[in-house]
Amino acid sequence: MKLEESPSKQVSLRTLWREFLPLSLSDVTMACGDPMMTTTLAHLPDAQNNLASVGIAKSLAIFFESPIIMILHAANALAGSQSSRKALWRFNLFLGGGLSFLLGLLGIPIIFNAVGVSLLGVPPAMLATVSQVLLIACGWPFAIAWRRYFQGLLIYHGQPRAVAKASIFRLLTLIIILGCGFLLQVSGGVLAGTALMSGVIVEAIAVTIFARKTGATIPPEAVTQPNLPRNLAQVWKFYLPLANTMMVVWGGRTILISILARAEDATIAIAGWSAAWGLVLVIANSTRMVQQIVIKYCHQTSELTSQRLRYRQLLTFAISVGAACSALLLFMSLTPIGDRIVQSFIGNDIALANSIKPVILICTIVPLLVALQNAIQGFLVSENRTSHVNLSTWLGTGTLLIIASLAINNGLKGATAAAIAMIASMIVEVICLSWKLVAK
């Protein structure tokens, strides 16, 4: 399929897929880390406690990471001028460093013991392990901020394979550390924190090297978009809604863990949800990079009619990606092969396996919803309508927490309640984003 534009601006669905696949691979390899870590911890002593503790610690780490998750999108969108890049880079270092400091502060046992019990409802048996993981991984936000800035530059300059290669280096690092830790029977918390930090540091170094070698750090001679923010104040105004969006998303998911901690089956609910959601994200995360394709291509047309055709094509592309991944997850949830994957994933824990299976089945629609969500967000970000992205996230997160609380209060199993609430929240967010896009 080709758009009716000038040859220099034509792009086909095949081209979109070809550029998307290496980017998708980077998200898939990143998501593969969670199942690998779950499998390793499941075969170490005190499996359920370690799985639940690491699930809580990673939720907190990602919450502190959340303000800089959208740095990738910002770097891609603002890479058209040197002044915009410099302003974003300074902003990035300041924000990433500050968040890492706060995460390390939270991990101090005397602080976390108070906050963990009173605010998060963490069971006392998990406090020490969660605190340990947070202290080891306190540099996580800074390393992620660094990595995502250079990833954005690489995507803008058409270097998706470099992004994929760096993510493979991260996965290999994780595999090596998890394997060594398993052989040495290292404590689950120490092993998880070390593996997480080592992998992301290796990836951050790799994308930096690739960006310099490929020339992605060199801005274009002419400004490609005249309305880009050029200083720290303008970057802050552009980025604040995006940062708040991800803080709301991961803040909501952290609160979801605290809601599960109050379920009748608290330990198995947290462990089951963390394990099942990690497995679902291996496939669902493979669709997220549709947003980068949308941001890159949606402004390559000047005429309104051509732009509408481009938007339609990009949305069709996103749906095709999401539908393919949802079909794959459905196949896994309904076939004996899927049962074997789950069984090898969590070991011989029958109770945990029974908790995971219904969650995976419920979540088969997640990849399609993630693809739609990211595509529509990409349209809005490229139009500098970041506040609309933020509003939709607030509505979706509110739906998540309300439905999860109601379901658990009515006696539904914790992991199943979380899955139903997550689906409902994503549907609400996609509807809201679509309405904002159409109503421009």
UniProtKB/TrEMBL annotation:
- Indicate what this protein is called per its UniProt record: Uncharacterized protein
- Membrane-spanning residues where? 91-112, 124-146, 167-184, 190-211, 238-260, 266-284, 314-335, 355-376, 388-408, 414-438
| Keywords tagged on the record | Membrane, Transmembrane, Transmembrane helix
Organism encoding this protein: Okeanomitos corallinicola TIOX110
